[in-house]
Amino acid sequence: MDNVTPLGGDVYEIDTRMAGYSGITAGYLILGDRPCLVETGTSTSAPVVRDALTSLGVGAEDLATVVVTHIHLDHAGGVGDIAGFYPSAEIVVHEKGARHLADPSRLMKSARRVWGDKLDVLFGTLSPTDSARIRALGDTGEIDLGGGRTLSSHYSPGHAKHHVGLLDSRTGDLYVGDAAGVYLPETGDLRPATPPPDFDLDVALGSIATFSALGPQRLLFSHYGPVGEVAATLERSAEELQIWVDLTKRARDEGLDLDHAVAMVRDRTRERYSALRADDETAERFELLSGAPSNVGGILHWLNRVPEA
């Protein structure tokens, strides 16, 4: 299939074709003794992901595990659908997100408030998963991939309080979710992802430091794809966070409201990102992945919550 890319080490990148785009959200299949899907994508992407798994020889009873880095709908919106397609799969998530997969009503209500009518087009509806099938991870945990291979889970909040990074013991791949930001392979841009209500700069920088200390060989971004320059990329992640926070703080100190703060930060960061000077579709996709209003809103929420920041 043209949306499946082998990455070596029995790892396959799956373009979930979120909202009909290519290169928005990646799921990853680790095809070992106990096949594991990392990230489901959205609910509307679930059939695309199922078809990709079928093309790789994974049948309805073959998938052992589904694990999500966090429960935002672009990463975990398809969990309920995928759980239905693969009735033997265990669903793994951090303990702070587990109840929302079992009963998504509050999560969906909150998402509807943020996205309005766009919700149905972008994400669809997260269906509930039987709580008996959900395994809640603590701050560390392990997922058995078979043959002595494991995914170790490492709590990495800052982007979201229910976020984990996942390290493959065999390949050294680290699934970073959104904790290291959003990467656009066509342009090499790396931009923070700092949405409300959970963003916290110190915690986010601590998560990046945790990733660095794990010594990964490669970073697998959910948005989007593999990156081999690990140390330099994680340094950039921390730098971009600091730049966006400093600019947002300056806007707040000047008394700007949210719309004007967004305009200022967007203008002063524009030259950092080739995507925004590329074709309209690339720019639109980058803004959808890591929108300035969401990022600035999340940073302002943190600044107002932590006055000494």
TrEMBL record:
Q: Which InterPro entries match?
A: Metallo-B-lactamas, NDM-1-like, RibonucZ/Hydroxyglut_hydro, ST1585_MBL-fold
Give the matching CDD domains. Answer: ST1585-like_MBL-fold (cd07726)
Judging by the UniProt lineage, the source's domain of life is Bacteria
Chain ranges of the Metallo-beta-lactamase domain: 24-223
The protein in question is named MBL fold metallo-hydrolase
What organism does the UniProt record list as the source? Microbispora oryzae
